[in-house]
Amino acid sequence: MTSRSRLWTDDGGQDLIEYALLAALISVCSIVAIGALGLAIDNYYKTSVEAKIP
Predict the structure, then answer these.
(1) Is residue 33 one of the residues assigned to a domain?
(2) Does the predicted TM-score (pTM) go above 0.85?
(3) What's the rounded Cα separation, in Å, for the pair 19 and 23?
(4) Nearest 5°: phi and psi at 34?
(5) Would you say residue 51 has pLDDT above 90?
């Protein structure tokens, strides 16, 4: 078997790469979700405080 065909059939490190990509995707989604949640909470408190101030 040539080295090129071995390269295409060898899947030794595939699992590690898949887990790393999955972890990166979860991290990015978490950062976006926490940022959106922070803005929503900020707007909620701003409107509730402004409503109570005469």
Answers:
(1) yes
(2) no
(3) 6
(4) -65, -35
(5) no
Provide the 8-state DSSP code for 54.
-
The span from the CA of 6 to the CA of 13, in Å, is: 13
4 lies in a domain?
A: no
Per the structure, the complete domain to which residue 38 belongs is given by 22-52
Q: Which residue has the tokens 């090129």?
A: 4
Show the 3-state SS of 1-53.
Answer: CCHHHHHHHCCCCHHHHHHHHHHHHHHHHHHHHHHHHHHHHHHHHHHHHHHHC
pLDDT for residue 6: 73
Q: Give me the phi and psi of 13, to 5 degrees please.
A: -100, 10
CA 15, CA 40: separation in Å to the nearest integer?
37
- 31 belongs to a structural domain: yes
